[in-house]
Fold this sequence. Notes:
A: mainly alpha; Arc Repressor Mutant, subunit A; 2 domains; three-stranded antiparallel β-sheet; 6 helices; 3 strands; 10% strand; B: alpha+beta; Alpha-D-Glucose-1,6-Bisphosphate, Chain A, domain 4; seven-stranded antiparallel β-sheet; 30% helix
Amino acid sequence: xxxxxxxxxxxxxxxxxxxxxxxxxxxxxxxxxxxxxxxxxxxxxxxxxxxxxxxxxxxxxxxxxxxxxxxxxxxxxxxxxxxxxxxxxxxxxxxxxxxxxxxxxxxxxxxxxxxxxxxxxxxxxxxxxxxxxxxx
Amino acid sequence: xxxxxxxxxxxxxxxxxxxxxxxxxxxxxxxxxxxxxxxxxxxxxxxxxxxxxxxxxxxxxxxxxxxxxxxxxxxxxxxxxxxxxxxxxxxxxxxxxxxxxxxxxxxxxxxxxxxxxxxxxxxxxxxxxxxxxxxxxxxxxxxxxxxxxxxxxxxxxxx
Lengths: 136, 159
């Protein structure tokens, strides 16, 4: 994480990125403006924001570290735009891993129970309530 | 209830995945299935070389259909007999030709509890928020084709 910029960015990186980003009124407004008006320069984003240009810059980098926005050079100015695709990919990636664990947990269950069912005589001191398997 | 249904509400955070499943089997049996590397490999579908021991790194080749080109490195952290087993790894598929040792890992924890009707196993994988989004996106692209084919298989397993 070499792109951390101070405490704000660090905090955003470690926390749940989206909620951290949405939990701040200025950042929420920045996202709102970028989603409505498209790529904008820091100058444009600072207009009527009620906070300093430096603060806007800081918030944009925090959003950038959370993967929600990115900047690009357009002509002679640098503009900021929403980058939800990457975040969506990350979420889909996590969902896949979650599904893989579901499958793995079910395989573990099948693996252990299949063997346990077929080796009742070796069950030792194991007893259960409400189970088909009871110690003899 | 399937593991999928039980974990549905535990999926709210982006940092961790949590699964809980109750196995109708004695705790000792479940413990062996998880901490004996060969038995782990049988259900997880990975061909592991060596045995799990605290501090050890075990390398294995995935045997899950469609994923055979992938390897995993499991760094065993802690083993508390019949109760707790944890290791670290790279959560996303790795390209065997690349060195990922400098990248952050996730922590996988298995916790066993005796419960009515058997043994409850809680599986937690955490630390996803420290993985750079770029890496997640790259991993997704790396695996997109493989996953596309796997989704049907996975759906069959969990239904």
